[in-house]
Specification:
single chain; alpha+beta; Protocatechuate 3,4-Dioxygenase, subunit A; 11 strands; 25% helix; 22% strand; disordered C terminus
Length: 274
């Protein structure tokens, strides 16, 4: 059986289970024709008003991560709807993410390392970072914030280490868009997300990792609307008393799992740097 046939068979099984599951829900709850049409209209409005990516990320992406076998590596975590490819490449030992001259918030120095599951440092791994600002807003999704603000890419050194400077991101409520807010209200879910830094990490011969790092003591860790704040991804924020102005630092090391020869699923081509 070739690769295309395998993919078709898998798609058939998944879609069949979805359809059968929805039919069972309709029968079990005796859904009326009026309720069914209202549900279809709700889905149509979600798509037409551009909320589909946000809504599906909030409701389902954490479940996808739970289904992924990390194979001994760092746990994956939701990408969310705010990733933008092509962030600037940053040079230097601990470069600053692009930010405004008067960027509000406490300074943050993020230190980390990237290793394989056997402990070997992964040299020149690509670390793609994005985060919200001190008001919980993301560049390119908030018109008042400059393009690429608090977004950047760095490479690990000969010991697999990397660092970058930023500001401590704020916890935030997911955008209160009408259809998303309506469904969260039905599910009795608050809209809160704990503060976090997003990272995509890629190294030759290893599975790509998309994850988030959270901070101990955040009031929303136990009430994350996405259900993604995994304890293994929580780190401590340390005060830096000698810094100019309020400053914090944190450390988090990442482990990537190797892939078998010929298995390219989840492996990024690291050649292009642009």
């Amino acid at each position: 059986m070739n690769e295309a046939t395998n993919a078709d068979t898998r798609s058939n099984k998944i879609v069949s289970d979805i359809v059968d599951g929805l039919k069972e829900i309709i029968r079990r709850h005796q859904v009326t024709l009026t309720e069914f049409r209202e549900a279809v209209g709700y889905i149509r409005n979600v798509v037409q008003d551009g909320e589909l990516e946000l809504l599906t990320a909030v409701l389902f992406e954490a479940a996808v991560d739970e289904a992924i076998d990390s194979l001994g590596g760092t746990a994956s975590n939701v990408e969310g709807p705010f990733y933008v490819a092509g962030a600037p490449m940053l040079d230097g030992a601990a470069p600053a993410l692009p930010m405004r001259a008067d960027e509000p918030g406490k300074q943050l120095t993020f230190n980390g390392a990237v290793r394989s599951t056997d402990g070997r440092p992964l040299v020149s791994a690509l670390v793609d970072v994005w985060q919200a600002d001190d008001a919980g807003l993301y560049a390119q999704f908030a018109p008042e914030i400059p393009e690429w603000n608090l977004r950047g890419r760095v490479r690990t050194d000969e010991e697999g280490r990397f660092a970058f400077r930023s500001v401590v991101p704020a916890p935030y409520d997911i955008p209160g868009l009408p259809h998303t807010a309506r469904l969260l209200n039905v599910l009795r879910l608050g809209p809160h997300r704990p503060a976090h830094v997003h990272l995509k990490i890629a190294a030759a011969g290893h599975r790509d990792l998309t994850t988030q790092v959270y901070f101990a003591g955040d009031p929303w860790l136990e009430q994350d609307v996405v259900g993604a704040a995994t304890p293994s991804l929580v780190t401590e924020l340390r005060d830096l008393p000698d810094a100019e102005g309020p400053a914090r630092a944190c450390t988090f090391d990442f482990v990537l799992s190797p892939v078998d020869a010929g298995d390219r699923e989840g492996v990024r081509d690291l050649a292009p740097l642009a």
